[in-house]
Amino acid sequence: MTLDRFGDRFGDRFGRRFGHFVAIDWSGAAGERHKGIAVALATRGTATPRIVRPGHRWSRCEVLAYLRDELPDDTLVGMDLGIALPFADRGAFFPGWPDSPGSARELWALIDAICADEPHLGVSALVDHPDLSTYFRRHGGREGGQFGGGQGRFRVTEAAQRRMGCKPYSNFNLVGAAQVGKSSLSGMRLLHRLADRASVWPVDGLPAKGPVICEIYTTIAAMAAGRTASRSKMRSAGELDDALAVIGCAPSGLAGPLDDHTCDAILTAAWLREAAHDPGLWRPRELSDEIALAEGWTFGAV
User: 56: domain range?
Assistant: First the structure.
């Protein structure tokens, strides 16, 4: 089945396919529980998304359990992480390594197997792997010979993000406050463990039923709500309500200062509810079957 046929098949049904919309601000930080994880849930209409378990400090394994056990079948989940590593630029995730996997799902399985003994969906065993560490930029000035220099390697979808004005980081980069490498790698462990419960777009296409997970970039949602890439982070109820109003969502009902993770999750859940109606976002022009299976895509990148 080709990706074009997914579009033809669903056509005007995009708006009816999903009735619940979850946005997850994710974290790859060390340890069990993280203030950087926030989960927001929206339903059809214009009501403000609600924070799931407000005040709770989530662990990654708790998010896994939530996605596995608590999602209605008509849920679209957006996770703020990269669902794969670059592949198209060099024809492999780990060029030159004989065991380099050939698809995103095989990559997820490999990462989970290497890190099987590591708690909290951690990924240190992968980035310190004797054969694979050379592909990453790690702390302490450790840059492997296969990292690629400069900002590192990027996926095709990240080139699309750049054209939109976003500033993505390579998933092979594990250094810096804005790096997303570790959160993406830990997220890939989660995706592998959800194989029988949820589909992942576009790796699995867009099946007619069952929960679907997609990669999101919260900056894209913020830009759709009138903010710039450099001002995508919101830290007050006033800023959040202004952004929600732009996308036709009711005010949050919150007051005062807020953390940016809460704001990102609420706004992105509201945006996802609106964006899911747009067939064009499910059919980006550069998204081929080969890229879908290997690199995936960021929903909303065009």
Answer: 3-83+198-294
